[in-house]
What we know:
This protein has helices at residues 14-24, 36-56, 69-78, 95-106, 124-130, 153-163, 184-187, 236-251, 253-270, 296-305, 325-329, 334-337, 352-366; strands at 2-3, 63-66, 86-90, 111-114, 135-139, 168-172, 191-195, 206-210, 276-277, 286-290, 308-309, 340-344. It is α/β, with parallel strands linked by helices. The strands form 3 sheets. The protein has a 7-stranded mixed sheet with strand order 2-8-7-6-5-3-4, sandwiched between helices. A 3-stranded antiparallel sheet has the order 9-10-12.
Amino acid sequence: MIYLDHGATTPMRPEAWDAMAPFATTVFGNPSGSHSVSRQAKNALEEAREEAAAMLGCASLEVVFTGGGTESDVLALAGYTTGGGGVVTSAVEHEAVLETAAALTRRGSKVVVVPVDSLGRVDPERVSAAVDRETTVVSVMAANNETGVIQPISEISRLVRSSHPHVRIHTDAVQYFASKDVNVSEFGVDLLSLSAHKFGGPKGVGLLYVKEGTELEPVLHGGGQEMGRRSGTQNVMGVVGMVAAMRAATSDRARYRRDVEEARRRFELALEGVGFRTVPDSLVQHSHLSFPGVVNETLVIKLDRRGLAASAASACQSGASKVSHVLTAMGYDRDQARQCVRFTFGWTTRPDEGEQAAAIVLESLESR
Ligand code: PLP
């Protein structure tokens, strides 16, 4: 099987597995307890927090461990809109943001969804202009999960801050971190979401960076873990695996970039004249192609039968024949959107898989 759906999830890195193993057996304590069994777990959790913070360029108390990217996004938005605060976001955000924003609207918050251009780019001026006195959070993703388009987060932060210094700025960097380092001060954000399973950690664990002094209202109430910001016994094993994967992904950046870029170059070269890139520029691992006259769900099934895993849209939507809201926002009609297939390369990709995958695509197209 050639796996080109790393944007949906990527295999765990061996470093993550190795780091997690003791937590399935000997180190089983509840990190909130006071005896030495608990202390071992607590120490592991706090070491992981410090290491994650160092990689993101923040202080360890600014890292809140969560149950994944969705929870981080929900906490970022819901945490600053109690009492009806408003949200400004973009039309191409992940459902975790857009559906949370829709739920907030039903509770009386004002939500403004800023459109994107035909290449999926958010204009920082439009984001800034949409912010008003009711706005408490601005949320724009660092890179899109379907197309891989990178958004100008630093510029958005700079503009919003200059006119509305009290608004919290959130970015969902869930796809971005798989191939690029994240530094919260370079982005200039107050809140940033990551999800472990997109960069070689386990599923069901993530983090939210919360800038010091940015008091947020928790979504999960209870025992007051994570300094009251996210109650519930922490997933110590998952957190340790996530941070080991962050470390592995960070030290593997140069090799990753070389192999993924080469595989993607060979893939797109072999498909020239058949599949067309929908966006000129994206994260290195995304190849979002349009195949004129093809129905993506059918093509993805044919590819799967021949041993190539790709996706007709983002993972959460595949299976349902809903038209991608990302492509709709870029001005595609239903037929145009249904010609698009997402191929996402990852840390296990070998350069020669580029031409092998392209050969499978060509065979599948011929068998129409
Ligand atoms: N945000 C983006 C951009 C994503 O791609 C995803 C996963 O598809 C999520 C959030 C949700 O993350 P999780 O699967 O950890 O809930």
